Amino acid sequence: MGGRLSIVATPIGCLEDITLRALRVLREADLILAEDTRHTRTLCSKHGIATPLRSFHAHSGEAKVSATVEELENGAHYALVSDAGTPLVSDPGANLVSRATQAGVTVEAIPGPSAVLAALSVAGLPIRRFVFEGFLAKKGKDRRAALERIADSSSTVVLFESPHRARATLTELEQHIGSERRIALCRELTKVHEQTIRGTAREVQDALPDPLRGEVTLVIEGRTRGDTPREDVDLEALVVRWQSEGLSTKAMAQRLQADFGWKRNEAYQSVLDVLSSAN
Asked: Has residue 227 got a pLDDT over 60?
């Protein structure tokens, strides 16, 4: 009988950010496949998990992948983790999952922390539609193509960046997206020194601490393409969220103008209609 491969999301910073199910699965598994065993051992020690660890990362060769799939086919239960967050999101493991599914192994998701979703939740930008670009290429035509995609995207874009390249990336972003579109730079998410800097590319760059430390996630506002029809906007959900953020009716209407290109009177009346229907 085939085995099971559990894709387990682990904390992106605070070690308490892990689900009860994830802890149970990590304890029950025969083996934990870890991107960096030293990093994962710290998590296991924190939560009293004694499951053996095996290194499994982007440089693991074909022989190792084949051997792991064979063990799973023979009934093993393995848990796959990355150093932080949800595996396969800008992390290794896609080849193993593909091979395991082809071999008939049960692959299950144990959801949890994700730097992408954490950054989107605090960015203060429209997130009805978003695109994840991961890490940009360091140079050359691939990097230029990615920057052009971001400039042309009507969806909010999320990307990862290293702290020592963040300033240069913000400079390039300003050149491609202009001086009006908003950006949120999130660093050290869920950690003691968590910080989110919001503004234009220039404003964010000017507000960066020196030196800049910690993992960086950038959230970039999409390009405005004229008015967004009322039927394409979940206005009720937006108003509920904005109320929880303490926005006034006027501020909500201004957000609709800025985010969706609505006229002032239309935006204000739409917010009033939602508020009155809720009472």
From this structure: no
Binned at pLDDT 50, 70 and 90, residue 190 comes out as very high
Mean of all residue pLDDT scores within the chain: 92
pLDDT of residue 267: 87
Three-state DSSP string of 65-121? HHHHHHHHHCCCEEEEECCCECCCCCCCCHHHHHHHHHCCCEEEEECCCCHHHHHHH
Within 10 A of 63 (CB to CB), how many other CB atoms are there?
Answer: 8
Contacts of 187 (CB under 8 A, 6+ apart): 163, 193, 194, 195, 196, 212, 213, 214, 215, 216, 217
Per the CB < 8 A criterion, the answer to whether 201 and 177 are in contact is: yes
Q: Which helix (H) or strand (E) holds 187?
A: strand 183-187
Per-residue CA distances from 31 to 20, 26, 27, 169 (Å): 18, 8, 9, 39
* Phi–psi pair at 103, nearest 5 degrees: -85, 0
Task: For tokens 């949120």, name the residue.
Answer: 184
Of the candidates 49, 206, 222, the residue with the CA atom closest to the CA atom of residue 127: 222
pTM: 0.77
Which residues contact residue 8 at a Cβ distance below 8 angstroms, ignoring those fewer than 6 apart? 22, 25, 26, 79, 80, 81, 87, 110, 112
Are 190 and 168 in contact by the 8 Å Cβ rule? The answer is no
DSSP letter for each residue of 4-41:
EEEEE-B-SS-TT---HHHHHHHHHSSEEEESSHHHHH
Q: Is the pLDDT of residue 230 over 90?
A: no
Between strands 216-220 and 156-161, the pairing is antiparallel
pLDDT score of 226 more than 60: no
